[in-house]
Every structure is written in structure tokens, then in C-alpha cells.
Amino acid sequence: MSQNNTDQFFKSTVLGHPAGLFVLFFTEMWERFSFYGMRSLLILFLTASFTDGGWEWTRENASALFGSYVGLVYLSTMLGGYFADKVIGFRWAVVVGATLMTLGHASMAVETEFSIYLGLVLLVFGNGFFKPNMTSIVSEMYKDRPEKKDGAYTLFYMGVNAGAFFGILLCGYLGEKVGWTYGFGLAGIFMFFGMLQFWLSQDIFGDIGLKPSKESKAKAEALDTDKRNPFSPIQLAAIAFSSILALLWLVNDPASKISGGKVNIFSFLGPNGNSIAIVSALVVFIILLVYRFTQYSKITKEKLIAVTFFAFLTIFFWAIFEQSPNSLTIFASDYTDRVLTGNWSVVFLVMNSLITILPLVIITWVLILLFKQTFKFYALANIILSVSFIIIWAIAIWMLTKDYYTAGYLSLSDSTLQALKIDKVTTALTEVPATWFSTLNSLFIISLAPLFSKWWESKYNPSANLKYGIGMGLLALGMACVAFGASGIEAGAKTASVSMIWLILVYLFHTMAELCISPVGLSYVSKLVPARMIAFMFGVWYLAVAIGMKGAGMFGENIDKIANEHGLSYFFWMLTIISIVVALFSVAMTPVIKKLMHGVR
């Protein structure tokens, strides 16, 4: 192969990929640890009773705030992508984002009304700067190796889910079993570790992600001969109008519900003011998007249309998939039998030990491989990374010790209990935390990601549309499992004792669906979009994700209404049918989209 300016990254490899990919792997892992750790607790914290330290909100209000929060998290990537592209570069954007998120988690750990809201705001902006620019760095590293991008993104996604797994497992455990403050605070500590590790290792990325200079901009423009399409004043005004309206709607939607209508920015538009506002914003944005596409060269235009098609499908995927921290967590908490006795208690304790220790062993092994390649040049970064893993190992062992003691299988003296900060129990009990089920998604990702990575690199690699069709079909299968499991719950029931097997099956099928859609979707953005637009278009992609996230919250808001009238099973059957329709639509559009992609696989 002829030499190119990214060959330098492949001179020092880990598992066949540049060592720099694994620096990003661990940075993203700690960011996802903090994000998913806090997210797993948010709905439970908001709906928990005052006596349990929560806010005792209704599920509708909690879902409304949750939907707006995760929607704003992904919408803010537009801002972060722009600043990285034009002003501060990818690297500084990652550091700014990580700093804001560290402060956000610290604020939430204080647990006052003001600090919780302030923390959510800081997390929104922090994610906006961090998220699109990590994937942009990966894209730049592989720009001359497109055949390895799918595998790289899948491995990168494995790091994402390793962080999510440990974040949900440990932050969720501490939040539910010890105190909300500990769960929120732990998330911030590891975000701080991730930021330090990235900053101290940044030279491994060469010139990628540096602050844009006149020379770098001129070089990028010289390499990119595509037709220019600058924004006119009218187009900028349309963007501002739709963006401001959408932002106000995302804030006003939960605010108007939580305040009982006392706070309502769009009250002047009548009782349907919220709906009128968001529909107006979407109509203006779609008109602008269609017009902009007509201004590009034919090939670029058609590739952007293909990206937009996949982004449209992604909206439905995330709206249904993100029931995990919402309606599925409520299902786990209120409708699932989580108390285990006898042999089942032993089975769970052993299984939980294995799924905690084995992933830690695997990720520690990857860490050692990275050390062998980078310790000589980035010793301090590796030492900080080592310290973070020592802390994770300590917390994991403490958690397992507490579980075995609480279940009655381990005897500890009073002095040991005091030293370990474990409360003394008189009645043995094994109760699976409601957040534990969410860890299954990340566990299955860690287990299955290498297999899917090999599949995408083989001659049996399906087309983009078929991947989406398979993914949405698996999503439907998962929802059908929980719908069937909930079939015995009567309409209006507030509690039940459904078997845990249904939730386990949901997360298995949904994980396989995620592997077919999420990392693959990111890969297609990087393949189809011109280099000068990459960070911004990742932002546009995350805009679609934001719409899906808010859609997930809106679905969750209606779970009680639908369950009271038709039964809980009806709610999940609705999501099953939507998934099947989208899957069939994706497969049917294969010939059209294949033509628009111009040979990109």
C-alpha cells in the first residue's frame, strides 16, 4: 500500500488498530461511565419517595425532564461540533466538555434543587463539546483506511459500553443501596480521570484535532474540491429561528408539566402551544435542509440524502431503545420480582461476580497492551489510568463483599463491617437492584462487539439498509418479549411480580439491534460526508438522536395513561409494531439508498 499521512498511527498497534484508538477508548469509557452512571439513577431519584431521599415526582413529570435532558445532550453537539471545527479544535473541545461534565456531576452530588438543575445544564453543554469531537478524531485517524473504519468504530463502541457497564453497575448500586449522592459523585470522579488521561496523551494523535490555523484551513480547502455552499443571511436566520424554538420547547415541555402550567413560554399560542412551536421549528428546518441539498454537487448531495435517510431511521431506533432507563427501569422497579431465595440467590451472586470481574479482567488486559506500546512516552497518563482502575477494582470488590454478606453467605465481624462502611443486617436478603438490568446491555455489547466487528469486515457484510432492517427487527423482538411477559398484568396495576427472564431477553435482543445500527451509523457518516463537514454532520446526526431521545421521554410520559386504560402489555406491543414497520421500510428502500451511496459500503 502506498504511504499516506495516517500510516504513522498504524506503526504502533494494539489488537491491529492504532494505540491512539485505545487512548480514545479509555477516555470515552470514563465519559460513558459518568454519563450512564448518572442517567441510570435519574428517573429512580426523581420518582423515589421523600423518605428514600428522592423528589417523589410522577412518572410523567420524571419522563418529561429525562426526555428533555437527553435530547438537549445530543442537540448540544451541534454547538460543540461548530466550535471544534471553526475555533478551538477537537482536542480543546474534548477537554472543555470533560471539565464541564466533571463540574456537573459534582453539582448533582450536592442534591439541592438548584444544584441538580445546574448539574444537568453543565452536563448538557459538556456532552455537546465532548461527544461529536471524539468520533471526529477517530474518523481522521482512519481517513485513509476506510476498510477498517467499521471495525474501529465497533471497538470504540466496546469502550463506550465498557464505561456504561461499570457506570450503571457501580453508580447505580451506590445510588440505590447507599445514597444518591455517592452515585452522582462517583460519576464525576471518573470523568475527571478521563480528562487527565486524554490531555496527557494528546501528542499520540499527531496533528489531528489541533486548533484550526490559517495554514490548516487552507490545506483542508485545497484537498476538498467540492462545490461550496455558504449560508446566506436568510438561511442563518432560519437556523436561528428553528434552533431557538426547539431549545425553548425542550425546556418548556417539562417545565410546563412540572409546574402544572404556571410556567409556559408558549401559552400565548393557546392550549396546544407546545405542539405548534415544535412543529413550526421542524417545518422550517426541513425546508432549509431540502433547499441546501439542492445546492451541492450531485454526488455530495446524494450522499448527504443517504445520511439523512439513516438519520431518520435512527430517530425511531433511539425513541424505542431508550426505554431502558425509562419505562423498562420502571418495569424492573415496580413490576418485576427481584427478590431471590435459595439456589437462585446463589446463582445470581455467582453470576453477578462473574459479569463484574471478567469484564474488568478483559479491559485491564487491554490496558496492559496499551501500556506496552505507550508507557515509555506517556507515563503520567498511564499512571493516572492505572489509579482509576485500582479504584474501580476496589469498589467492585467492596460491592460483591457487601452482597454476599447481605445474602447471608459471608460472615464479617463488627469491626470489619465498620471499616468497610457496611450496615449490619439481621435478615438475609438478595434483591437485584432495578438498575442492574441496564448493565446487561453493556455486558452483551462487550461480549458481542468483536463478533459483529468481524462480521462487518467479512465478505458477508450486509448492506446498510439490511443492517438497519435487522436491527429494527431485533428491537421489535425484544419489545415483544416484554409485552408477552407483561400480558398478565391487569390494567391500572401499580405493582406486579413478573419473572426477570423477560427483561434479560429484552436486553439481549436490543443489544444485538444496537450493534447493527449505532456504531454502523456513525461509520457511514464518516464515509459519506466530506472532511470539512465531518464534525458538523456528526452534530446533525446527533440532532436526529436528540429527537429520538425526546421521543423516548414522550413515550415514557404516556406509560401510566396507556397502562391504566389498556394494560402495560399494550404499551410494549405498540413499540413492537412501530419497530417492525421501520424495519420493513428500511429493507424496501435498499435499491434507492444503494444508488445514492455511490459504492460506499
TrEMBL record:
The keyword Protein transport applies. Keywords: Cell membrane, Membrane, Peptide transport, Protein transport, Transmembrane, Transmembrane helix, Transport. The keyword Mitochondrion does not apply. It is found in: Cell membrane; Membrane. GO terms for molecular function: peptide transmembrane transporter activity. GO terms for biological process: oligopeptide transport. Its main location: membrane. The chain crosses the membrane at residues 62-83, 90-108, 114-130, 151-175, 181-200, 234-252, 272-291, 303-321, 341-370, 377-400, 434-456, 468-489, 501-522, 534-555, 570-593. GO terms for cellular component: plasma membrane. Gene3D superfamilies: MFS general substrate transporter like domains. It is a multi-pass membrane protein. Coiled coil: none annotated. NCBIfam families: yjdL_sub1_fam. PANTHER family: PROTON-DEPENDENT OLIGOPEPTIDE FAMILY TRANSPORT PROTEIN (PTHR23517:SF15), RESISTANCE PROTEIN MDTM, PUTATIVE-RELATED-RELATED (PTHR23517). Belongs to the major facilitator superfamily. Proton-dependent oligopeptide transporter (POT/PTR) (TC 2.A.17) family. This is MFS transporter. The lineage of its organism: Bacteria, Pseudomonadati, Bacteroidota, Flavobacteriia, Flavobacteriales.
